[in-house]
Design goal:
alpha+beta, five-stranded mixed beta sheet, 169 residues, 7 helices, Glutaredoxin, elongated, Arc Repressor Mutant, subunit A
């Protein structure tokens, strides 16, 4: 894929190194099935872009994977692991699904929102945290739970949340 075909993408973001990593994912799938690399490619680009995906970056990926841009947008909007606007340095995903609800997550949500001074979908004024509500993180046996960046924290209490957040530099 020619670099000129990636018009609109930030050159420093959709660079040779990122393209090589995407190519490694593409190579894992049958020829002509590059769209299968969409999710890992979105992860790579999100990580390289400060934790979020712009329309410009997603459109460039669609060109690179030879698929309609709407297909990339559908994937990015379907999964809660992708963010479509700038986020804080640390992403906090707190599960509010049934297992977590039955184990007291509503009180923990109130606690974390008061502690951070933000609601769901918001970022703290210092840019340190973005708080997101997620439907399920697949750790029901450890409910209530949250994910901070890539780490899962289970069997939460208000004190445990304070300890986790206070331990982030």
């Amino acid at each position: 894929m020619s670099h000129l075909q990636l018009t609109g993408a930030k050159e420093s973001l959709f660079n040779e190194s990122i393209r090589q990593e995407i190519d490694q994912w593409i190579a894992k799938y049958p020829v002509g099935q590059s769209q299968s690399a969409a999710i890992p490619s979105l992860h790579l680009l999100q990580d390289a872009n400060g934790g979020w995906l712009s329309e410009e970056v997603m459109a460039a990926l669609a060109i690179y994977l030879d698929m309609p841009a709407i297909s990339i947008f559908e994937v990015a909007t379907f999964y809660s692991m992708f963010d479509l606007k700038p986020v804080g340095d640390n992403k906090i995903n707190i599960c509010t699904n049934i297992s977590c609800q039955l184990n007291g997550c509503a009180d923990l949500v109130d606690h974390i929102q008061k502690k951070l001074g933000v609601g769901f979908g918001e970022t703290t004024a210092d840019g340190k945290y973005t708080l997101k509500e997620v439907e399920c993180l697949g750790a029901c046996c450890g409910a209530p739970m949250m994910q901070v960046n890539r780490d899962y924290h289970e069997l939460l209490t208000a004190a445990k949340i304070d300890q986790i957040l206070d331990g982030i530099n």
